[in-house]
Design goal:
Blueprint lengths: L15 H11 L4 E5 L6 H10 L6 E5 L22 H6 L4 H10 L13 H7 L14 H14 L2 H14 L9 H14 L8 H6 L13 H5 L5 H13 L6 H14 L5 H4 L1 H8 L7 H8 L1 H15 L1
Parallel strand pairs: 1-2
Helix pairs in contact: 1-2, 4-6, 7-8, 8-15, 11-12, 11-16, 12-15
Length: about 300
């Protein structure tokens, strides 16, 4: 039976059990769904509902989420950053993907599919499908699922979400210019299939929103510049100067002729130095499309800047 419990202090202030029962009743709570660590509190609270003559809610206790370690340890609210809701926004997760993931770690759909909306879960919900052992909070699975949601967004919707994220990170101003917005709209389809979280947009797209003389080259990018880099960049400047129409197809054709054919460098190695010059990174969105978005003047200025640096 429940042990003796203080429910009202000498000063008339209620303790937790009395306060939560009265508060939930006043809010009209009919179903109490909570973690399994609250099971021991349930008999005490049921007695309080009965003694006070209040209708009892339905109680359900859910298994706890676990860390993906060998011990399947309980997630710590103090040590695990994922216990803080704002952490997910900071990491670039979509709300609908997070809801789907949290449902997935404790529940299974009748058809076993892993991607489903909250509304679809409500339509098919059955308590018998709730996990009895508790799910593992696997961020790799969350990343995969978030990437699926990103790929399913309309381009304009994704562009707006990227804009909001880049603004919070200080990459874009609160009121971006028309040029910034146009570049973002053009670049969004280039990265949509390459992103798992919005946080990745910082590394992928920041080069579009800084002046060329403020472009920072990553250590990884600089290390990738091999002995061929100076002559590749020199040939690229000459070829790009002569491109009649600044389009990705024309840029690619000119550079392939000048570098792949002219210098006899294999395609997989031919454009690395240019990528570093234009984006500052060894890995980036598609190079020729990125140069088209940046424009002739800005792209050439960046390539010339690296040429000067290498010489």
């Amino acid at each position: 039976r429940p042990d003796d419990q203080v429910i009202l202090k000498a000063d008339g202030f209620p303790t937790y059990h009395l306060a939560v029962v009265v508060d939930d009743h006043e809010m009209g709570i009919t179903h109490m769904v909570r973690g399994e660590e609250w099971i021991s509190s349930t008999p005490k609270q049921i007695l309080l509902y009965r003694w006070l003559g209040l209708p009892e809610p339905v109680f359900a206790h859910m298994p706890l989420l676990r860390n993906p370690d060998k011990q399947r340890s309980k997630i710590s609210k103090r040590k695990n950053p994922a216990a803080r809701l704002t952490w997910f926004r900071e990491q670039g997760y979509l709300p609908e993907a997070l809801r789907n993931f949290l449902a997935l770690v404790g529940y299974s759909m009748p058809d076993q599919r892993e991607k489903f909306t909250f509304e679809e879960m409500i339509e098919t919900f059955d308590w018998s499908r709730v996990s009895e052992t508790g799910g593992v909070f696997d961020t790799d699975k969350l990343n995969w699922l978030n990437g699926e949601y990103i790929r399913g967004l309309a381009e304009d919707d994704l562009a707006e979400r990227i804009r909001a994220y880049l603004t919070r990170e200080g990459v874009l101003p609160v009121e971006p210019s028309e040029e910034h917005l146009a570049r973002l709209a053009a670049a969004t389809p280039l990265v949509q299939t390459r992103m798992q979280t919005l946080a990745e947009s910082v590394g992928m797209l920041s080069f579009l929103f800084v002046p060329g003389d403020e472009l920072e080259m990553t250590e990884d990018g600089l290390k990738s510049l091999n002995a061929d880099a100076p002559r590749v960049i020199e040939a690229a400047v000459t070829a790009l100067d002569a491109v009649p129409e600044w389009s990705s197809s024309a840029i690619e054709a000119a550079l392939r002729t000048a570098i792949v054919e002219g210098l006899e460098i294999k395609p997989r190695f031919a454009f690395g130095p240019l990528r570093v010059a234009v984006t500052g990174r060894r890995v980036s969105p598609p190079l020729f499309e990125s140069m088209e978005i940046l424009g002739r003047e800005e792209s050439l200025a960046r390539v010339r800047a690296l040429a000067s640096r290498l010489s």
